[in-house]
Amino acid sequence: MRVAVRGENSGSVRRRIVAGCSALLLLALTSGGAAQAVSSPDNVRADRLDPRITEIMRKPDYPNAQWGLLQQDPDTGRVVHSRFADQFFIPGSVAKLFGTSGAWDTLGGDHRFKTPVYAIGERRGSALNGNLGLVAQGDLTMGGRTRPDGTVDYTDLDHTYANDFPGATLTPENPLAGINKIAQQVRKSGITRVNGNVIVDNRLFRPEPVFDPVPTPLIINDNLIDLLTTPGARPGAPARLDWRPKVAPYRVTSTVKTVAAGQPTDIQVTTSANGTRIRVSGTIAARSEPALKVSPITDPAAFGRTALIEALGRAGVKVTAKPTGANPVGQLPGSYTGRPRVALYTSPPFSQYAKLIFKVSHNLGGNLTICLMAVAAGSKDCMDGFPVLADFLDRAGVDRKQVQLLDGRGGNPVDRTTPRAVAQLLTYWQHTPEAAVFRNALPILGVDGLLADNCTHCPARGKVFAKTGAAVGLDALNNRLAVGAITIAGYLDKGNGRYDVFFAGVNGASTPDTDVNGVLDIADDLAMISAYLQEDTARREG
Questions:
Q1: DSSP readout, 310-374?
Q2: Which residues, listed in sequence order, are joined to residue 491 by a DSSP beta bridge?
């Protein structure tokens, strides 16, 4: 289910905060405890909390909530603040810290995904009598977000959240950039005609239905079709629609009408059974910003096959096979030994993908990390990534018994972590050569990512580096939203190149009704707690 946002003019600050909490929507996730219990036996050695933080925790909005908090010096181990540090909390997207860290360690931050294309058949001059096989390697973006300088682009509210929150925007890069480069390389290899087929080899790993969204070996545009509606010149006029990536047999039609300025924008997306016929309907207010929606790509391998055939045509390579239809993976050989490689697309380094996952709370990427660890262990079963993650956490000094996971994004009801386990993981990274790269991959308060619009003029701006998380669902009994958790975890800048690690979270909160603004208020509170922790720490250290 989804939480509906009332009105299109909710502030971008609120939209980005809740999206930063991952838009994880779970039903009736609660946790007991009283808001007044802002101290516990494990805080004996901790300093007194900033009164502004205790004031938040004691708000009447949290009558049945449980707060957790841990702030610690990663160099000395000194605990600065501790509240229920060894109690399980629902992590939401803070769980992405675990899976993405495990993949980072397993693959290496400098790892680049190299997606080859092989010629399977006989060459006669410029003709290939046979097939081209693109061997998918689990590249998260296939060039669709790569800037000219080789870094990965993102917006503060990612297009993957467009159906849940208004204000999502697109990066300017061509989603088919990697596919186009592959096609151009095939042409440069001397091939101008393929008397056969183009096949995507998607056998790297099997789709894991427990994960939501389900990662696939080939991913183009996050396995989504972007649908961008712009209001017409006047009320009553048809709205303008643009969509991408334009690949057959996907077809999009629109009946969206422009209504008077200030009237509700209400756009719906319906799809055919196979997902290839998409209809956009509803209304959009005159003089409003373009409204983005997305529709899923139902068969990523078949989509990628068609996209490559079309790209080959643009590059001057004729393929005799019909461009649309199923991806005939069964026609591929068991091995490519001895087959000539005619193209190779190389991705940005994995650290750039980790940055994307953290900055925008990229759910597909978070789940993909588990599958990538399984592949590194020689398995096609994504679940085999968890033993690899377990080994990493053991080596990193994380008490694995204080973490429960059944995905990589933090979206499964099983997922739990203690504040201490998160602090242990953050402490590990702080003592590695990649400490600064990891820290700067997290959203930065008031600067970028999903914390870009928080605390933009407060003293803590630019001094909190943190991942956020949430679990929110409908309490139908009381007609309100139940907040299983809102969490935030990362680093607090103490000055002079020193940082404390921290976790703050609340379980079992609720809102007055079904208006999402109540959830956003709770997310605001967590962001402000992180700011107050940093400000108080800087004052003490100064």
A1: HHHHHHT-EE-S-SSS---GGGS-S--TTPPEEEEEEEEEHHHHHHHHHHHT-HHHHHHHHHHHH
A2: 465, 501
Listed residue (241, 242, 235) closest to 257, CA to CA:
235
Dist CA 221 CA 225 (whole Å): 7
Two tokens at 370? 């588990």
Least confident of 117-126, 127-136, 507-516: 507-516
In angstroms, rounded to a whole number, what is the distance separating the alpha carbons of residues 488 and 21?
8
Residue with tokens 């009736």: 28
pLDDT of 430-482, one tens digit each?
999 999 999 999 999 999 999 998 999 999 999 999 999 999 999 999 999 99
- Give the C-alpha distances (Å, rounded to integers) separating 514 from 66, 520, 540: 21, 12, 41
Instruction: For residue 357, give both structure tokens.
Output: 């996952």
Token pair 């002079």 in the structure block, residue: 496
Find the length of the chain.
Answer: 542
- The residues near 301 (Cβ < 8 Å, ≥ 6 apart) are 136, 200, 202, 216, 217, 218, 327, 329
Task: List the one residue out of 140, 162, 115, 142 whose CA is nearest residue 216.
Answer: 140
Distances (CA, A) of 300 to 414, 470, 491: 28, 28, 37
Q: Which amino acid is at 413?
A: P
323: region left, alpha or beta (phi > 0 left; psi from -120 to 50 alpha): alpha
Contact 392, 99 (CB under 8 A): no
Rounded to an integer, what distance in angstroms lies between the CA atom of residue 385 and that of residue 407? 10
Sign of CA dihedral 346, 348, 350, 356: negative
Collapsing DSSP to helix, strand or coil, 402 comes out as helix
Mean pLDDT of 137-165: 96
**Inter-residue contact 297 to 364 (CB < 8 Å):** no
Question: Which helix H or strand E contains 115, and what residues bound it?
Answer: strand 112-124
The helix (H) or strand (E) run that includes residue 469 is strand 464-475
The answer to which of 16-25, 111-120, 255-264, 332-341 has the lowest mean pLDDT is 16-25
The one-letter code for the residue type at 394 is D
Cβ proximity of 206 and 137 under 8 Å: no
Give the C-alpha separation, 187 to 172, whole Å: 26
